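Q: I have 335 residues here and want to know how they pack in 3D. Can you give me a structure?
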Amino acid sequence: MKRREVLKSIALSGATFSFADFSKVSTPSAPALSFFSIDDNKIRFSHSKIQKPFSVTFIADTHLYLDDTRGGLYDEYSKRMSKAYNNTKHFKTGRALNPNIAFEETLKIAGENKSTLVALIGDIFSFPSEAAIGWVLEKLRHSAIPYVYTAGNHDWHYEGMEGSSALLRDTWINKRLLSLYQDRNPLMQKLDLYGVQIIVIDNSTYEITDEQLDFFRNCMNSKKPSVLMLHIPLYVPGRSLGFGCGHPDWNAKNDKSYQLERRQPWRENGHTLTTMEFHKMVFNSKNLMGILAGHIHNQSIDIVNGIPQIVAEANAEGGFLQIDFIPTLPASPTL
């Protein structure tokens, strides 16, 4: 299938890890067989219900700071983040880099790998600059690779601007970011690719809405092999408070960054019941092959109830994940 047809029908350095779920292959009623493996930034999901091989390039935390005279009215709110990632170093080679070069190079790699989809999963921008958004749209148009986008906590945040995170997210999605969503719902999206559900949920406020919870529940009810993509990873025991969404101690008392980021502090009484229910539902999902996230800027992997959660290196430093989906051959009958 050509890329334009796909678009119409609608992505541990030096370490490896793999697992196979053989618990359901002994009876004819549950023949699904799945595997997961990782080598460096290359991820492989294999499942018997995947219809044909395809790949996704996953990008998060590019932190583009490009701006022009149109952003002059907002200099007061963009001044810190406009200087945060001007000069970076490649996370592997250490060569000099910047976010624009990193993004272009990653799109080029996605094209060379014949990726079916590019997934832009938050903090592509350091603030909602019209110049940066227009630049990304042009690069995506030129690449001709279908893409999906969701916001991170910086994409819609002008630091010091009054209003709650939910209000500011809604405001700047509609004012600046809307064209990136291609008429999809900005807070929850689902793409069906060759038997796999790519589920994209915006948790950039560190919370989940009732509508998002219902959406995810309905996706899981389909029983299709699925991958969940969100900007902020989900809390895993042993990880720090700031690592993930759904930490039991998340509250205003423990919010150490709100003054630096000039935003309202986290809620005093912690996460909503909806967010905690989402966290529980995700890690108890039977047909979820894995979770892919950004936000932390360092690649990591955690396995919870057999579900791997992989966090990508920051794209500002050249990081990305190349994810291959491969059909699993039916298990051989016992002799």
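Q: Anything worth noting?
A: The chain has a mean pLDDT of 90. The longest helix spans residues 99-112.
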